[in-house]
Amino acid sequence: MSDKTEEFGQAPNEPHDEYGRAVCLQCGSKLGGDCGDAEPDFNAQFCSKGCFQKHSYPNVGLWDCMFYLLDDDGNELKDDEGKVIIFTAPDSDYSYVLDWITVDDLEEVSDE
Questions:
Q1: Within the chain, where are the H helices?
Q2: pLDDT confidence of 78, banded at 50, 70, 90?
Q3: Contact criterion met (CB below 8 Å) for 103 and 96
Q4: Using CB atoms within 10 A of its CB, is residue 85 exposed (0-12), middle (13-18) or buried (19+)?
């Protein structure tokens, strides 16, 4: 048996479940156009973009942390143009937040 076979629990060129259906080597999702589990551009290594990201990049980091001010009624502090004023706290350490966040909690930010 190769190292890859032992790592994934099945032969790299033969990723199938107990019923003979092709499955993703990483997460075990069924592969194929009619199963609904995999994206159309799947391959035997990763069934989807999400599967690739989750298994290739399994750790979460903190990119940015911003704050805004509220009054007792929940109204945001705004500038003269009506935009919420955003603040940072550059000398603070927010790494403890990562104790509560996993890859499964994340949603990709769009550029809209």
A1: 3-8, 49-56
A2: very high
A3: no
A4: exposed
- What pLDDT score was predicted for residue 88? 94
For the chain, what is the HEC assignment?
CCHHHHHHCCCCCCCECCCCCEECCCCCCECCCCCCCCCCCCCCCCCCHHHHHHHHCCCCCCCCCCECCECCCCCECECCCCCECCECCCCCCCHHHHHCCCHHHCCCCCCC
Residue 90, amino acid: P
As a whole number of angstroms, the distance between CA 70 and CA 62 comes to 24
Q: Is the whole-model pTM more than 0.85? A: no
- Residue 79 token pair: 């500038």
**Mean pLDDT, rounded, for 44-49:** 68
